[in-house]
Amino acid sequence: DIQMTQSPSSVSASVGDRVTITCRASHDISTWLAWYQQKPGKAPKLLIYAASTLQSGVPPRFSGSGSGTNFTLTISSLQPEDLGSFFCQQANRFPQTFGQGTKVEIK
Amino acid sequence: QVQLQESGPGLVKPSQTLSLTCTVSNGSISSGSYFWSWIRQPAGKGLEWIGRMYISGTTNYNPSLQSRVTMSVDTSKNQFSLRLSSVTAADTAVYYCARDLGLFRGNALDIWGQGTMVTVSS
């Protein structure tokens, strides 16, 4: 299986801060990567697919970049509603696998 | 907007079979080039992809669960289903159904059900 490793595991930032989350794949996955946000008690919500394509309806403060094995999710200006956990997912090979998650807290 | 809703028993005894159904509303399960997926999440842990299927019956399963998993679709009811046999406590989790966008959009999961908690206990 392709292992997905996220860092940091948690981050605490202030409203308006720029937040960056990284995801590393154990094998080259090209741009077969998606990012999700999960709020407590809720299902994950798709933010970005194909590494950098913003899902319809997602605020443009979210952006994704990377290819191969190294990927980044950036929140350009953190908002109170952005709290929750963020997961990366590779869909290059079966089984699809997820990172362990990054918890974002608001200071 | 298409919506998904999981249903099924919240408690399953060890060694028995877990059966869940996902109902698709506000859209046809047969339209578009979508796959229909199952993902689970133990309490406080990460997400595990169980597998997906296409309406033709083509399936892709997680090898770690393949010997115990069966997925099926009922287009007449706009539903797809998951069966997981010989369950143990390790199968206790929130189970989600989701729509997979397919090859042209990175196989991303764009619509999710709200999730249903399944506990394996005697």
Describe the structure.
The complex is a heterodimer of chains A (107) and B (122). Helix content of chain A is 0%, strand content 50%. Chain A has 107 residues and is mostly beta strands. In chain A, strands 2, 4, 5, 6, 9, 10 and 11 form a seven-stranded mixed beta sheet that branches. In chain A, a hairpin with a 2-residue loop joins β7 and β8 (70-75). The radius of gyration of chain A is 13 Å and the shape is globular. By secondary structure, chain B is mainly β. In chain B, a hairpin with a 4-residue loop joins β7 and β8. Classes of the chains: A mainly beta (107), B mainly beta (122). The A-B interface holds A 1, 31-34, 36, 42-46, 49-51, 53, 55, 87, 89, 91, 94-101 and B 46-49, 51, 60-64, 96, 98, 101, 105-110, 112-115.
Question: What is the topology?
Answer:
The complex is a heterodimer of chains A (107) and B (122).
Chain A: E1 4-7, E2 10-13, E3 19-25, E4 33-38, E5 45-49, E6 53-54, E7 62-67, E8 70-75, E9 84-90, E10 97-98, E11 102-106
Parallel strand pairs in A: 2-11
Antiparallel strand pairs in A: 1-3, 3-8, 4-5, 4-9, 5-6, 7-8, 9-10, 9-11
Chain B: E1 3-7, E2 11-12, E3 18-25, E4 35-41, E5 48-53, E6 59-61, E7 69-74, E8 79-84, E9 93-100, E10 109-112, E11 116-120
Explain briefly what this protein structure is:
The complex is a heterodimer of chains A (107) and B (122). Chain A is mostly beta strands.
What is the overall shape of chain A? globular
Instruction: Give the low-confidence spans of chain A.
Output: none
Q: What fraction of residues of chain A sit in β-strands?
A: over 45%
Q: What is the C-alpha radius of gyration of chain B, as a whole number of Å?
A: 14 Å
Number of helices of chain A: 0
Kindly report how far apart the N and C termini of chain B lie: 39 Å
Overall mean pLDDT of chain B stands at 96
Structural class of chain A: mainly beta
Average pLDDT rating of chain A: 97
N-end to C-end Cα span of chain A: 36 Å
Q: Choose one word for the global shape of chain B.
A: globular
